[in-house]
Give the backbone structure.
Amino acid sequence: MQEEFDKEFEVSNINNKEQFEEEVVQHLNNPVTGIAAIKKEYLGAIRNVKQEGNKFFFSDGSSSVEVRVISDQIIRVRLAPQGTFLADFSYAVEEVDQKVSTFSIKEIEDAFLVATNTITCKITKADFLISFIDNLTQQVTSSDASSMHWEENADFGGYYVYATKNCQPEENFYGLGDKSGNLNLRGRKFVNWNTDAYSFGWDQDPLYRTIPFYISIHQNKAYGIFFDNTFKSYFDFGMQNHEKTSFWADGGELQYYYIHGPHMMDVVKRYQSLTGTHQLPPKWAIGYHQCRWSYYPEQKVRELVDGFRSRQIPCDAIYLDIDYMEGYRCFTWNKKYFPNPQKMIKDFANQGMKTVVMIDPGIKVDDNYWVYKEGKEKNYFCRRADDYFMEGHVWPGRCRFPDFTNPEVREWWGGLYKELVEAGVAGFWNDMNEPAVFGAGTFPNDVRHDYDGHRGSHRKAHNIYGMQMVRATYEGLKKIQQNKRPFTITRAGYSGMQRYASVWTGDNVATWEHLKMANIQCQRMSISGVPFCGTDIGGFSGEPDGELFTRWIQLGVFSPFMRAHSAGDTREREPWSFEEPFTSINRKFIELRYQLMPYIYSVFWEHHRYGFPILRPLVMLEQESETNYYRQDEFAFGDKLLVCPVLEPGASSRRVYLPKGQWYNYWTLELLHGGSEYVIDTPLDSMPLFVKAGAVMPESPVMQYVDEKPIEEVWLNVYYADCEVNSFMYEDHGDTFAYEQEVYLEKEFNIKGDATGFTIQQTIKGLYTPNYELYEFRIIALPFNVGKIYIDDREITTFSIDERGVLRFKSNKNFSRINILKG
């Protein structure tokens, strides 16, 4: 027993032996875990090896490990404690194998080496330790501290599964999706169990979503680990033992993907190649949205819509929370509050305002309620182990809950949206889908799920329940709306949920601390593969003052999902609620969102098509600089805008770090050199915003809603640089799937400047034809006087220099080359 104890202490994350002994005693006295706590089993020496295509199987005689080459930079590892693997099924990863140039296996004296052109997976013979090596530098990027291990779960069957890896002294960790607190995860421990975390706090864990994917950086090399396990899982980034990092789960397989960099951007893009990118949303969904729990009755909502239009504050969508329903029954209308919803929604649409409504998973137990009656007759609701229906109380009272892991149920659920769509509803918000249950918190563990034919208890299905609900919603809407892109939001989810929905960070609080947290959470979600993310602007609970709300609006302009939302027991908070000067400042920044819409939409396309995160922390911009490992206030939106929100009350200035290169102050056009910190003035009507030198930034006229009026010409703001820089603009119909048939335009602008001239080249691909014919160029900070301008070798003489020294002229939209020559 002492030998077993010593071995457990050696691989644990606890430095102090007395502390470890105390925890073991507590575990032994626990009637649930009992003696099993000290009976972990470990892989022994490798006895045989077998290859099947891109899969390599290693066995110690009883247990098996599969090492599967997914691509040149991705390798998957799976453990079967008794030698038999579970079915190879994942809700996160739709297609496992990718393109591999070449791979091989080689036996050396003490190990086997499975290699691609880029990386090598080394498995030692004697102790089954697995490590990953960069072929170019021979640097070991990730290595086991102990072999993979497990312990039998006597109560539920299956195994607790564990992986423990070495944590380098200078190693730092990022990602893991929906977590509060600091961006850098080093020295912290986390639990993944989707939880309704009302008014959550700094470092509170767990929260609403499970994304078991992290990124590590050490010695300027990045790699990622994606632990594709839907059970309750845990991650320790050197908290209990600073020399070890570990991840484990309460059941399922120990299955993880090693994803090589060497840059953070590479890791994120390759993770997205596994789990998918966000579908291109309808363009209106990227506008400003207004929400509250709840806006009703109809007259109140009409006044709200009129309030935006009369005050000339842009807005694209108004939300109806649960009070629009009849007794909180989903897919119904409260006819007292909304006697003619179809006419109301049509009137809003005529004003350019979309309507979004909430749908929850809890279906009221009521034989007179058509949704319940259908679900009951078709046996679509979840059952417990003793075959009784799972029932719990949520907003409607006693409810049953569909099993969204059953494809037949998903098909049915998706079809339920038909009447709401026909009434004109444009978007749907799936809430309470952790799943949340009043009192109990969530479903009991013994609830059974179909799991797409792979059967499992709620322990297995809990973390993917919300994802499968919004999947059913998205797929149903895609059929009902035909060629129109669905807009969906989900509160809960798992890796891969970005294929179906946008998200927000949940029920936050109107405090400055939560404003800081909102900034970090959206960055973290973006690099964790969930880019279309926002926060409840102003805070869901509590009462913001005008300054806090306005600073939150400013941050919201550069949140991919921009929505204000508040609880019903708070004062109403529209952009004009705090009167002047706040109304004018809020209008100015919401207008900025619409002015930058061509750039923002292009960044969304770059994510969807190429896997780039929308928000990029400073550590991703300058991975080689250790001083950036803990910077978290600033971020890039796309690759051309640097955003530095104001996060302190009463701040008249703030310190800003600019990454290497040259940057222009968006407001003043002042050129600043990167690699340094600056103190920037931050009056309430401004926030630090910088544009990368060489950028071609497309802008459009301010509109009250997306596509309010035809664009007659696109403004191209070109920021001079004395080096070659590429920029990108994307255009399409804005709300259809025609882009899948190449009915879009990808425009690439290449600029290059020196002391004698400045060149702009444009290349275009795609089949879309925009309505406008002209660009208006605004060339900023040319270092010489303009002599001549040639557009495709034709000289133009109509140009001007404004009071800020900005060169202005127009060209046709299809030009190939512009030359601006020194006078």
Summary: Residues 385 and 446 are 5 Å apart (CA to CA).
